[in-house]
Design a protein that fits this description.
Layout: E1 5-9, H1 19-26, H2 30-43, E2 50-52, H3 60-68, H4 72-84, E3 88-92, E4 95-98, E5 105-109, H5 110-121, H6 123-126, H7 135-151
Antiparallel strand pairs: 1-5, 2-4, 3-4
Helix pairs in contact: 1-2, 2-4, 3-4
Length: 152
């Protein structure tokens, strides 16, 4: 059975403060454009931010709109804005990459997730320094007992 892989997109608490987000929101239908930008990022997680135009539609913008189930006019505005903010990098007429995504993508396999959850559950077993006496304490106790029996 093939192992499941989980992906996530990290959003910093400054996401709405960065220049790209602010620029997108100032455009007509800016909130909608920003939402479509987030949808596009989520759609491109597995490909590490790379989109390949497969010519299923007449234009790349139409294919993205179809993939995201969004209006093609808004997608065209988004692509133009991303070019203007240098957030998108075209390799050729069929392929682009969302350059900011490279630092925002994370993933793990199902076995790694299971191990991580197991470690979190049994975290108390990882560090037992408060329960176990240190060697110095044990040594001091042994010396005290030795000295006590020595006096007898």
């Amino acid at each position: 059975m093939k192992e499941k892989r989980y992906y996530w997109l990290k959003l910093y608490d400054t996401f709405f403060d960065n220049k790209t987000s602010k620029f997108l929101r100032k455009l007509p239908d800016g909130d909608k454009i920003l939402l479509i930008y987030l949808k596009l990022q989520l759609k491109l997680l597995k490909s590490e931010g790379v989109f390949v135009y497969e010519h299923l539609c007449e234009s790349m913008a139409e294919e993205i709109a179809m993939t995201l189930d969004e209006d093609v006019t808004i997608v065209k505005l988004l692509l133009t804005a991303l070019e203007k903010t240098k957030t998108i990098e075209f390799f050729d007429e069929n392929t682009f990459m969302l350059s900011e995504m490279q630092d925002l993508i994370g993933s793990e396999g199902s076995s790694a997730a299971r191990v991580r959850k197991h470690r979190e559950k049994y975290k108390m077993l990882q560090c037992n320094s408060e329960v176990t006496n240190s060697n110095a304490t044990v040594t001091n106790l042994l010396r005290r007992d030795r000295d006590r029996y020595k006096d007898d």
